[in-house]
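2024-03-11 09:14:02 INFO worker-7 job=invfold-0412 stage=load source=structure_tokens
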């Protein structure tokens, strides 16, 4: 199991089991009580509870805005991820 502080928004992670498109790389798009992930192979998004995510997480591949991710088709840079405006 990975510690909670080792991953952050925009990181690319590897899960224990691959997606249906046979890609095992996921980008963290939303963090909170639930975590939203985007498949780096087909672009599909899924959402799962944080506890389930930490159980299924294998390792963190790259941190946010790493130049390696820029080559991937479905990668969304951290500054382009929509964040809620809670200061209203």
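2024-03-11 09:14:09 INFO worker-7 stage=emit residues=88
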């Amino acid at each position: 199991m990975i510690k909670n502080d080792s991953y952050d928004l925009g990181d690319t992670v590897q899960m224990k089991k691959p997606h249906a498109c046979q890609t095992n790389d996921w980008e963290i798009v939303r963090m909170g009580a639930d975590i939203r992930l985007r498949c780096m192979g087909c672009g599909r998004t899924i959402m799962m509870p944080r506890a389930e995510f930490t159980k299924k997480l294998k390792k963190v591949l790259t941190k946010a805005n790493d130049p390696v991710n820029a080559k991937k088709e479905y990668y969304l840079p951290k500054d382009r991820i929509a964040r809620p405006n809670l200061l209203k």
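2024-03-11 09:14:09 INFO worker-7 stage=report msg="Residues 6-63 form a domain with the SH3 type barrels. fold (CATH 2.30.30)."
2024-03-11 09:14:10 INFO worker-7 job finished
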